[in-house]
Specification:
The protein is mainly beta. The protein is built from 2 helices and 10 strands. The protein has a 10-stranded antiparallel β-sheet, with no helix packed on it. The radius of gyration is 21 Å and the shape is elongated. 17% of the residues are buried.
Length: 206
C-alpha cells in the first residue's frame, strides 16, 4: 500500500472518530491599555467609594469548537495589579494599599477560568455579542475562592490589517471577610462589607 493511501486511510479514520472536528486555535491578549479597566464600588452607609485601574493583563486561548472540555482545552486568565488602584485621593489610596489590601505582600488579584457555560456557539464570520458564565478560581489577599461571573462578550472579526478582538464586560461581588480583609475604621476609608467589581476589557488577536 502506498504512503498516500496510508495517509488517506488515517485521515478517514480520524474523521470517523466520535466528536472529532477540526479546531482553529483562537488567541486574544489583554495588554492593560487605557480602555482596559477594572473598577470597584463600595457603597457603605456613610460613604460611597469608587476606584479603578488599567493595570490588568490577561489571555484567552481556546478553539473555535467552543466546547470548553478536556478534549478542547482552553486557558483563560486575568491578573490585576492592586497597587495601581486609584480612588481619587492619594492618602486614601495609600491606606487601601498598605493597611487593607496589603499589596506589598499580596500585590495581585487573579482569576483563572476552569469552566465556561455558553448558551450558543458564536458565528466568527460576523460581529456579535454573546452572554456566558465563567466559573473559576479568584485569588485576592492570599485567599482563593470559587467564583461564578456572568459576562457579556462582544466579538469583532478581523478586517484587513485590523485584528479580531473581543470586549469583555461583567460585574461580580467580593465579600471582604471571605478574603480576610479587615474593614477599616479610619474615617477616610470606610468600606462596605461587600464591594462590587466591574470589568471592561478588550482582548486583541496577535
Amino acid at each position: 500500500m502506498s504512503r498516500m493511501k496510508l495517509a488517506m486511510g488515517f485521515l478517514t479514520a480520524l474523521l470517523l472518530l466520535p466528536g472529532f472536528a477540526w479546531a482553529k486555535p483562537l488567541h486574544f491578549q489583554v495588554a492593560g491599555e487605557a480602555d482596559d479597566t477594572v473598577k470597584f464600588t463600595s457603597n457603605a452607609p456613610m460613604e460611597i467609594i469608587n476606584g479603578d485601574t488599567h493595570g490588568v493583563t490577561g489571555r484567552i486561548v481556546l478553539d473555535d469548537s467552543f466546547k470548553f472540555d478536556a478534549r478542547h482545552p482552553f486557558d483563560i486568565g486575568f491578573t490585576v495589579d492592586l497597587s495601581t488602584f486609584d480612588t481619587g485621593i492619594a492618602l486614601r489610596n495609600q491606606h487601601m494599599r498598605d493597611k487593607y489590601l496589603e499589596t506589598a505582600q499580596y500585590p495581585k488579584a487573579t482569576f483563572k477560568a476552569t469552566r465556561i457555560k455558553l448558551t450558543k456557539k458564536p458565528d466568527l464570520q460576523k460581529p456579535q455579542t454573546v452572554n456566558l458564565t465563567a466559573i473559576g478560581d479568584f485569588s485576592l489577599h492570599g485567599v482563593t475562592v470559587k467564583k461564578t461571573i456572568p459576562l457579556q462578550v462582544a466579538y469583532l472579526p478581523g478586517t484587513g490589517e485590523k485584528s479580531a478582538s473581543v470586549r469583555i464586560t461583567g460585574k461580580f461581588p467580593v465579600p471582604l471577610a471571605q478574603h480576610h480583609i479587615k474593614r477599616p475604621e479610619v474615617v477616610m476609608v470606610k468600606l462596605a462589607d461587600t464591594i462590587y467589581v466591574n470589568v471592561d476589557l478588550t482582548g486583541t488577536a496577535p
